[in-house]
């Protein structure tokens, strides 16, 4: 497994495994504590694993946690997703940068997203399973959502959004969220 720093988002990493394929399918290590530790991330900090299943065109996000935020490892375990990270840490050298990735079940690449970054994704295939490993128990009272189509972010989603939650549809702009965080 190889760890590669993401230049557009300070502290973000891609963990790229080596799938071993044969006539049966493939085998792949998707998490390696030693590799995670080698880039300064505490592998024991992760406390909760979750998975979502989405159909083509479903858009989830952009989501963020208030307070201390949450760091997460995100991997598309089946299918393919278009993944987006927005750095919203005011002290970060990459503050307000947007980075996009295609994650797939074929590569099993995992994206590490530091606390304080917003995250969202869109399913590109008929079925896309996305796995999350987060470093704090989820608290819905800390959920923050930013409009996926905010012109300030100018994210070029690859497909029209076929479905999303009401919370995501009604999300405020980045400017509104930042103003609320300042107060």
TrEMBL record:
<comment type="pathway">
    <text>Carbohydrate biosynthesis; dTDP-L-rhamnose biosynthesis.</text>
</comment>
<feature type="region of interest" description="Disordered">
    <location>
        <begin position="160"/>
        <end position="183"/>
    </location>
</feature>
<keyword id="KW-0413">Isomerase</keyword>
<comment type="similarity">
    <text>Belongs to the dTDP-4-dehydrorhamnose 3,5-epimerase family.</text>
</comment>
<protein>
    <recommendedName>
        <fullName>dTDP-4-dehydrorhamnose 3,5-epimerase</fullName>
        <ecNumber>5.1.3.13</ecNumber>
    </recommendedName>
</protein>
<dbReference type="InterPro" id="IPR000888">
    <property type="entry name" value="RmlC-like"/>
</dbReference>
<comment type="function">
    <text>Catalyzes the epimerization of the C3' and C5'positions of dTDP-6-deoxy-D-xylo-4-hexulose, forming dTDP-6-deoxy-L-lyxo-4-hexulose.</text>
</comment>
<comment type="subunit">
    <text>Homodimer.</text>
</comment>
<dbReference type="Pfam" id="PF00908">
    <property type="entry name" value="dTDP_sugar_isom"/>
</dbReference>
């Amino acid at each position: 497994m190889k760890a590669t720093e993401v230049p557009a988002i300070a502290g973000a990493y891609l963990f790229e495994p080596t799938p071993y394929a044969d006539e049966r399918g493939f085998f792949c290590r998707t998490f390696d504590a030693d590799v995670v530790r080698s880039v300064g991330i505490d592998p024991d900090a992760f406390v909760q694993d979750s998975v979502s299943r989405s159909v083509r065109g479903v858009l989830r996000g952009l989501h963020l946690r208030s307070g201390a935020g949450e760091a997460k490892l995100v991997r598309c375990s089946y299918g393919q997703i278009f993944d987006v990270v927005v750095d919203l840490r005011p002290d970060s050298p990459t503050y307000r940068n947007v980075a996009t990735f295609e994650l797939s079940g074929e590569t099993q690449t995992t994206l590490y997203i530091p606390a304080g970054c917003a995250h969202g994704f869109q399913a590109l295939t008929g079925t896309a399973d996305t796995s999350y490993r987060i470093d704090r128990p989820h608290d819905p009272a800390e959920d923050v959502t930013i409009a996926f189509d905010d012109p300030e972010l100018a994210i070029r989603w690859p497909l029209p959004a076929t479905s999303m939650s009401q919370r995501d549809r009604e999300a405020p702009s980045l400017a509104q969220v930042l103003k609320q965080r300042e107060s």
